[in-house]
Design goal:
Elements (H helix, E strand, L loop, with lengths): L1 E3 L5 E4 L2 H4 L9 H13 L11 H13 L4 E5 L4 H16 L3 E5 L8 H6 L16 H6 L2 E4 L4 H11 L4 E7 L1 E2 L5 E2 L2 H14 L2 E5 L26 E4 L12 E5 H9 L12 H16 L2 H20 L10 E3 L2 E5 L12 H13 L2 E2 L1 E3 L2 E4 L7 H22 L3
Parallel strand pairs: 2-14, 4-5, 4-6, 6-9, 9-10
Antiparallel strand pairs: 1-2, 3-11, 7-8, 10-11, 12-13, 13-16, 15-16
């Protein structure tokens, strides 16, 4: 939960190191023992040369905690690589090229995954240089606005459904401000994909493994029977202890790629030590009923404290909260309704640091994603600190 600087000052990690360290910063003994056993047994096997029992056990473990139709798994090292692999598989399977994503989305920092997102950082691969292969892939990434099914279907028809390989969605948009789609929209998107043979890819890099009070973020759409064709995951997969990600595919995709190569030569994919850590992480979540406890705390003390904090003049009242995946939007405390200025947000960040809070802040959005093992008492302490920082900011920015 806590980190210390070089002076010994303690900081509460309000974003779990960008939604990775889900079990805090004291690695559970169970995970450490699993890693050490694997190191002593067999530290590394290159995936293209042979399987190892630990990776096989991990695939079996994931079979138990993913939807029944998910039967095949690939294990890269990062969320960016997982999304690239998902895009590659959708293109190879369908024989199509185009990928649809939505406004505010972010799918990774490597060439194709960055091109897929609608994040401002996409500009770094948006070159018109024809020899830039990452930029060329940008030409096959198409953004739409989430929420309007009629417009979504029009966009699909305009782009040509027969040219679209997949629709890639964060189940709940993360870096873009914690935005939840509606059940109706998600169900409609799935139906449109099925109608046109387009694969539905769910990006669970941030939301997987209990972050939202469900094992998977797409399970929050309870009114819709979502059955994604592909899911990608990372971050909480090993609780941030070691770098490992995953791609899960539906049974028919699994069957297809048994005899059709995806040309995947990632050196560190399916690393046995990382796999051991992932198995132990999932078992720890199960043994301690972590996912259910996140939902319970979110619907009680987290909601109560966010209701109270959102009444501050420095925050908008309409916050977002899904499990321990939440966001407050800052505004100017003068009643104008304007987004908080850079001066105001800089002052607030300073006071948050003074209060011993380490956070992820993309103005005007203040992300709140504490470790999944955070206690009710610690939630109260966290919001007490946020409230004090907000009050000090208001006092500092208001005219005398």
């Amino acid at each position: 939960m806590y980190l210390y600087d070089d002076t010994g000052k303690r900081y509460f990690d309000m974003t779990s190191q960008v939604v990775c360290s889900n079990l805090g910063h004291t690695v559970p003994t169970k995970i450490k023992k699993a890693m050490f056993r694997q190191v002593n047994d067999c530290a590394f096997v290159y995936g293209a040369l042979g399987n190892n029992p630990t990776t096989t056990r991990l695939a079996s473990k994931l079979n138990d905690c993913t939807p029944p139709h998910m039967t095949g798994f690939l294990f890269p090292s990062s969320g960016s690589e997982a999304n690239e692999a998902a895009i590659r598989m959708s293109r190879l399977y369908t024989g199509r090229k185009k990928i649809i994503t939505v406004d505010k989305s972010y799918h990774g920092s490597t060439g194709i995954s960055l091109a897929a997102g609608r994040d401002a950082r996409r500009k770094y691969v948006s070159s018109e240089n024809d020899t830039d292969h990452a930029a060329n892939d940008c030409n096959h990434m198409h953004g739409v606005v989430a929420g309007d099914l009629v417009q979504f279907e029009r966009d699909i028809e305009r782009l040509g459904p027969e040219t679209i390989a997949g629709v890639l969605l964060e189940s709940i948009i993360g870096s873009g401000g914690i935005h939840h789609h509606t059940d109706e929209w998600m169900g409609g998107v799935q139906a449109i994909c099925r109608k046109h043979g387009i694969l539905l890819i769910m990006d669970e890099v941030m939301t997987g493994f209990g972050r939202t009070g469900r094992m998977w973020g797409f399970e929050n759409y309870s009114a819709v029977d979502l059955k994604p064709d592909i899911i990608s995951f990372a971050k909480g997969f090993t609780a941030g202890v070691l770098p490992m990600s995953g791609v899960g595919v539906a049974d028919y995709l699994h069957d297809h790629f048994q005899t059709n190569s995806i040309g995947y030569g990632n050196t560190w994919q399916a690393h046995p030590v990382c796999a051991a850590a992932a198995i132990a992480t999932i078992e720890y979540l199960e043994e301690h009923d972590i996912v259910a406890s996140v939902e319970r705390k979110s619907n009680t003390v987290m909601r109560e404290r966010m209701d109270r904090t959102a009444k501050s003049p420095i925050f908008r009242s309409a916050y977002r909260r899904y499990g321990f995946f939440a966001c407050l939007d800052m505004c100017e405390p003068d009643g104008s309704g304007n987004d908080a200025s850079s001066d105001t947000t800089d002052i607030f960040q300073k006071y948050m640091t003074d209060e011993g809070i380490m956070g992820f802040f993309r103005p005007p959005a203040l992300h709140i994603a504490p470790p999944l093992i955070t206690t009710n008492e610690e939630i109260h302490q966290l919001f007490d600190s946020i409230d004090r920082a907000a009050m000090r900011t208001i006092q500092r920015t208001q005219p005398p």
